[in-house]
Amino acid sequence: MSVFLARSSGVAIVMAFSAQAALADVTAKDVWSDWKSYMTATGYTVNGTETMSGDTLTISDISMAIPVMEEDTSGTFTLPDIKFVENGDGTVNIMLPAEMPIMFKIDGPEGPVSGTVLYSHDGSPMLVSGDADEMTYDYASGLMKIALKDLTVPDADVPKEAIKVSMTLTDVVTKTIMSNADSRTYNQTMTSETLNFEASIDVPDDGGSGAFKGAMQGVNFTGITTVPNGLESTDMAALLRGGFSAEGTFDFASGNSAINGQDGADTFALDSTSEGGTIAFDMGLDGLTYDVKQNRTETNITSSDLPFPLALSMAEAGFKLTMPVAKSDEEQDFALGLVLRDFDVPEMLWGMVDPTGALPHDPATIALDLAGKAKLAFDFFDPEAMAEVENGEQAPGELHALTVNSLEISAAGAKLTGTGDFAFNNDDLSTFDGMPAPSGEANLTLAGANTLLDKLIGMGLVSDSDAMGARMMMGMLAVPGDGEDTLTSKIEVTEDGQIKANGQRIK
């Protein structure tokens, strides 16, 4: 269903968020034709009855269908009347009903899924200006809401109203420039004072229920999408080779959320706040990148399975991924990053493992930044090629280089940091038992490890024999550093398969 969800989201964006402005003439029929062209370019078959009366074009009996999505699956949308009103100055107002039910039906191998999504707003028109080659859509609304009104799932003993989902935005301003030359380009911006979302499920006979709600303040989005003309929109691999690209950044100033659930006598609740964050994405033939960050998160957890509430905090949380998506004989970049910085747990939880306060209760940090080069042996968005990889019929590719730009792990007074750089010989799969033979080195620094071991022994959490084994291992792989209770280690892997630790061969 991933393709269906992406496309249905695209419909909502165009119908709810489209926007921008220029100085030229457009007619009502130009705008409707542009909409149909957009929908067709994204894979829909669009039908509707056109009635022109004076300066108003009314489109009724609107239906949009996707004949081919995922295997044996198709979907249709049905919309109420939409009016395109010529303003007499070369611009057009698009008039959407204040309450606009959008009915959908998905026919899949397990049976039809159907429902109704209600789009509502304050009735403000969407202003379209420009010309037939580049149209600008401007829209502003004090209130906008998208809500799932009912949902019917085959062979599910769930009432139609048991699942509720809604999203509400206030003081929304959007702008979209749609240009159509050799390819179709969408340049979008959106701001909203608040974004609220809610989801819940309540199945009385099962005795289970759950709810999720949250809000964001100071919401902003900017993005550009380019879609090549004349290509089958369901073939993402072909679209990428033809020039498809999409990039965008979503950020918010602050946010809060709450989750609760109940299953019989078992209960669970979580609420959190944050000081804002960013979600950025970039996709094209060169690869796919996600970069997610969140600042100063405070989380509270209660559960019938926990003896007391938990209060957790984190100064920064982040995740970054860059990966190739197109088959290539050339090396391509990849990267992976993870940050959990200054993760703090309550003293009550520390008291369970360290009642005497022997250990430092400083916040913990895990931070990793990797980059490298690889060859991808299949098109990531080709379902048949992906199935061959999953079934072991096709090798995913080759790893050629890996760089550890930074590594940091700190907790309970100990800290490990390091960097590394390795190359991989894919012609040598025997030296390291089927793995491409690496060559390069890693440099590590460990501070506070012996002090931590002493304290763990004193607390009875580590035995003397276990601590001795750990110290012997550190003695084999590391040498004393410049600071007190500091160890350094240089691990080298040579091209002929030797492994050395601080110059001493260990393999």
Automatic annotation (TrEMBL):
Residues 1-24 form the signal peptide. It holds the Pfam family DUF2125. Keywords: Signal. The lineage of its organism: Bacteria, Pseudomonadati, Pseudomonadota, Alphaproteobacteria, Rhodobacterales. InterPro entries: DUF2125. This is DUF2125 domain-containing protein.
